[in-house]
Amino acid sequence: MAILSKLLPPLATSFGVQSLFALIFVPQQNDKFYDFGGAVGYLSTAFVSLYYPTIRASISAGQLLPLPPLSSFAPRQLLLTAALGIWTTRLGTFLFQRALKSGGDSRFDEIKRQPRKFTYYWMAQATWTFLVGLPVYLCNVVPPSAHPPLGPRDYAAFGLFAASFIFEVVADYQKSSWRRAKEAKQHDEKFITSGLWGISRHPNYVGEVGIWTGIWALSTAVLQTRHFPRGTVGLAAASPLFTYYILTRLSGVPPLEKAGDKKFGDDPNWWKYKRTVPVFFPWGSKN
């Protein structure tokens, strides 16, 4: 339980960062920085989870102390933190640039005019950054000496992360290229059906679930040691499970499918696409 109490600094950081963004942007009714706030939340929370002993010592000493070298951390801690950092920086930059280009996020057109509700969404993002990053934070708060050496399970897990990351990047790139070609009048397709979008209607989200499944799997070896109470592996599994639930039941697939039906409902090609291409996993259901 002492180990779990060390999650309090990352938890406070996650909610503190989003509260700061809410204080700035809720009064402005500005949603352009929502995804950027999520990226900052992940990076800052991961940083605190890794360097909190030094941060606490600096506060006690009343001066900034040098950060320990990366070589002082366990390889698993470095891999997990790097995986989170790479994913966050790539996706955060992509979403932030898209928000700036489009002038915001249409999901918040009405919400941002309601201060209480808009604040709730910032707090929901704090919960998201904490729960989804939980495997990384858990591994970072234990001493490097508590980590078993990397083994086949860890390499397979990192391989799943890397493959899923590439899958997501390619899906986003294909859709961005498709949009640019459409704007340049190089085609008149109403919706994308090529590339990875021909084997899944939401391949970017499939990659997202794979990314966090790989990160969770990479954390399990240390979470099964005596430094953690029994069941911690299951607790950390909230990361991929929550990601899957959010994307397939709440803010991901459902509103996009509904918007597609509304926009393309009179086009037989849309219904053919829905009948022939799975909604999520390439091997999964089409409904």
From TrEMBL:
Would I find Transmembrane among this entry's keywords? yes
Q: Name one Pfam family in it.
A: DUF1295
Alphabetically ordered keywords of this record? Membrane, Transmembrane, Transmembrane helix
**Domain of life assignment:** Eukaryota
* UniProt keyword Protein biosynthesis, yes or no: no
Which InterPro entries does the entry mention? Answer: UstE-like
Q: Where are the transmembrane segments?
A: 6-26, 33-53, 118-143, 155-173
Please name the PANTHER family in this protein's record: 3-OXO-5-ALPHA-STEROID 4-DEHYDROGENASE, STEROID 5-ALPHA REDUCTASE C-TERMINAL DOMAIN-CONTAINING PROTEIN
Q: This chain belongs to which protein, by name?
A: Steroid 5-alpha reductase C-terminal domain-containing protein
Native organism is: Marasmiellus scandens
